[in-house]
Structures are given as C-alpha cells and as structure tokens.
Amino acid sequence: MRQRSFGNAYEGWVVVGAAAVLYLVIGASVTYGLGPIFNELVDEFGWSVAATSLAFSLRTEVGGIAAPLVGALLDRVGAQRVIVGGVVVAASGALLMSMVETLWQFYAAMVVMSFGVSGAGSQVGLAATATWFERRRARAMSIMTLGGGVGGLVAIAMAALVEDFGWRSALRILAAAMLAGGLAISTLTRSRPDGHPQPIDGIGRDETPGGPSDAQRRWGIPMARAARSRSFVLLTLGMIAMSFATTAVVVHQVPYLEREVGLTKAAAGSTVLLFTLTSIVGRIGLGFIADRYAKRVVMAAATGIVAVGLAMLANADSFLLAMAGIGMVAPGYGAMMPVRPALFADYFGTKHFGAVNGLATMLALTGGAAGPWAVGRVVDATGGYVEGWYLSAAVALAGIPLFLFAMPPSSLYGEFRDAEASRPA
Fold it and tell me: What is the pLDDT of residue 2?
C-alpha cells in the first residue's frame, strides 16, 4: 500500500486544502467565471436572455446527469484519476466556447465543459473529504468549499480580461489556467485508502469494548436502497428547491446589476467577489454549527435565509438594497455546500458515498437548471427581475419543511451500519 509522508500533519487536511484549490481553479471558474460574458453574448449574437440562460441551465443539468457516473467512478478508481480526466475535458470545453459562432455551438461547448467540471469540481473533493473525516466532517467540508468562497476572484479577473481582450481571448486564458492549475493540484487529492496508518479525523479513537474504531467507520447504504428511503426523497426535494433559488442568483447576478442597477461590467463582476466572500459566513459558520446540531435543521435555516434575501432583492430600488439582498442569499448558499454532503454522508455512510451523492446531485440540480431558465423567461416576459426573484423566494420557502421532516433512515442502519460494525476486522 502506497504511503505518503506529511510530517505531523494529518493527510486528510492536506486533501482538504488541495481540494479547496481545485474547487477554485475548476469549479469556481465555471460557476462564477462565465457570468461576465453573459451580456457580451446577448449583445453580439442577439440571443434572448432566456436562450442564453438556457445554456447556463444546461451547465447545471449536464453536471447533474454526469454526477452519478462520476460518483460510481469515484467509488471504483478513487478521486485522483477522475480529477485528471475532468480537468482535461473542462479546459477543452472552455477552449471550444471561445470559438462559438452559433447558439447550438455555445450549448455544445457548455455541455463539454460541464462534463469536465463534474469530474474535477466540488463533487470529487467532497467525496474524497468524506472518507477522511467523521466527527469533523462538516467543518472539513466547510474548509474545502472555501475554494468556491473566493471564487469571486475569478469573476473579477474574467470581467477585466473581457474588457481588455474580449470574451474569446478571456476564455482561452481561462482554459490554460484550468489545465495548468488543475493538473498540478490533482496529485494531492485522493480518497482515504484502506489501512491508512493515521486515525480518521486525525484524532485518537476510543478502542475500549463498544467504543468506536476506525474499522467500524467504513460503512454505507447502497445507492439503490438509499434512493428508496423517505430520508433521501425529502432531502433531494429540498435540495431541488434550494438549487432553483440559489443558481438563479448565481447566473443572473451580474446581468441583473448591469441592466437594472446600471453598473459597469467590471463593477457588476466585482460584486460576485462580495457574494462569494459573504458565502464564507455560511460555509464556515453554519458548517461548524452542523457538527454540533442536527444538520437537517441547519439546512432548513439556510434555506430560509435564502428566501429572505430573494424577497429583499425583489423589493430593492437601489444599489445598496440590491447588495443587501445578495448579501443575505450568499450565506445560505454557502452553507448548502458543506452541510448537504455532510448530511448525506451521515445518513448513508461513506462506503457508497460517491454513487449516493452523485444521484442526489443529479436530481437536485434539476432545480439548478430550472431556476436560471425560469427567471430568464420572466425577464423576457416582464422586462425586469422583480417577479423572477419572488418566484425564486417562493420555491426556496417550499424547501424548509422538506428538510425539517427528513429524519435519519434508522430502519436501514441495522442492516448496513450495525452489520458492518459487527463484522470481524
């Protein structure tokens, strides 16, 4: 078994740090970095807001469709090999996007990029992180997702590149950065191997009779059984509602501030940094809280925060009020990133986490695909964002009771978790 030496450092934290950088280089580049080219495409090609938004919805939907496949690969071959392939495909998609001339070409390039991001974005880092932690799982995932928390830096850089060199050259520079940075950091991101000498979480375990041990930690409910549980259904429906609302803001924030508030492209792009930095409050604050209290309640609270922020956006009549609404949405969005996968790992274990989380991601991202498109349709129909923000707020509110009623699948624990614990080492 290959071993690595990091001095006195727990390798799990090294994986967390590497995955955070990878999330910034790959995931944040596509999540936030494409916002500054939105209006450029509309103006140059004459596409409608809804048609352009559909490409961003495709980004989310394709990522969701790819998630179960990526999850199965993660369980089979580990994180490192999946990451390398994902980086190459994502960078190729960015390069193809720089050469588009028609709407269908734009859609095709977005599909390619989205497949790549699925193999090198947060899903892979979260799956790797889940195998290294249990007691500190939510906080580890919180730190891992900080890569997305500073992802607004990518939006600022892209906005500057678009203004100085045009959107095509900006995408080519992005492709080169994704390829170089992603491949360099992939060597440090791996799943925890069996028999690793360091204790899980990096802390000693109680090895007294009846106490927890590392051997007892590697359990999991197979995807087919997990998907039929009431817990899985309720959590996934809640995530569909949450993704609908938050992805609509992520995609439309820059064009909204440009068109309705009157900001320049660079100024509107810079607000994405504020969004992502503010999301750190949710990622770290609620993420750490989730290791101490019921994660389903934390998710319900995060969803309520998003709904309040969207209602504020709908009533904003100035730049300051608009930013207050965005600043309210951001922590709820940030909390979703670490708490949701930590919740799934707690409920369904880590043995099949890649497949279970991949299926949940695919289903949840249907909301993420619908949100930007639906808001774009409302903008085309009404000429403004007010009704679109109200629609998103209503969908978010519907997710609160779904999380609250998603109790642990205790009926399955005897068959899988307890049975695994009782097996001889």
Answer: 43
